[in-house]
């Protein structure tokens, strides 16, 4: 299904944060949102997730109002419950989300597939930052939603862990056939992961850059001349704003 945001606007305390914002995201696309701090990226994801209501405009899946289960939202903080093991954290949606029943065995299968089986009984405090983000991402997948909304999932990780996570995420996404909207401040990350990058200009709108690099993407691509060209183009567009 195709996600449409049509002339969506939102204000906090009468301050316009998102103005007349329109985008279309096709099923299975990987789309990144970048823009200066405070440009409204997190607000846009929260509007799509249904955590905030647009003041005007509408959000549609094809032509219908999305159902509550359409989106899996991963906020900036991973929000794993500290008293629950990895397995118990991953069972959460099966326990609380009507119509989304999966078993512990299903979760174990996911943990095996994603190389995390040995962490099943660990508590969040025993996990590294990267490992916590992997579990939080798995939990987002287990919502069963077609569209995953990921708010800067790797922002707090060191460069090496980040590289591992990007590879891991791409390998899972290639299997999944899910749509991903991904916020990042890291231009290389946006280019390496995305089919398209949306550059958010506060109050002015959105620009788009299509990334025509072949898939599967390899980490080594960040050293290519093409990557440098995309990077320069992005930097220019973020800094210049819209005419
Ligand atoms: N709960 C809130 N109440 C009032 N203003 C808010 C609230 N949350 C965010 N804002 C304001 O809305 C604007 C957009 O915030 P948002 O978090 O969407 O930006 P962002 O582009 O995701 O920023 P960053 O890249 O720093 O995460 C900012 O000016 C912020 O101060």
From TrEMBL:
<dbReference type="InterPro" id="IPR027417">
    <property type="entry name" value="P-loop_NTPase"/>
</dbReference>
<dbReference type="InterPro" id="IPR017871">
    <property type="entry name" value="ABC_transporter-like_CS"/>
</dbReference>
<dbReference type="Pfam" id="PF00005">
    <property type="entry name" value="ABC_tran"/>
</dbReference>
<keyword id="KW-0547">Nucleotide-binding</keyword>
<keyword id="KW-0813">Transport</keyword>
<dbReference type="InterPro" id="IPR003439">
    <property type="entry name" value="ABC_transporter-like_ATP-bd"/>
</dbReference>
<dbReference type="GO" id="GO:0016887">
    <property type="term" value="F:ATP hydrolysis activity"/>
</dbReference>
<keyword id="KW-0067">ATP-binding</keyword>
<protein>
    <submittedName>
        <fullName>ABC transporter ATP-binding protein</fullName>
    </submittedName>
</protein>
<dbReference type="GO" id="GO:0005524">
    <property type="term" value="F:ATP binding"/>
</dbReference>
<feature type="domain" description="ABC transporter">
    <location>
        <begin position="3"/>
        <end position="227"/>
    </location>
</feature>
<dbReference type="InterPro" id="IPR003593">
    <property type="entry name" value="AAA+_ATPase"/>
</dbReference>
<dbReference type="InterPro" id="IPR050166">
    <property type="entry name" value="ABC_transporter_ATP-bind"/>
</dbReference>
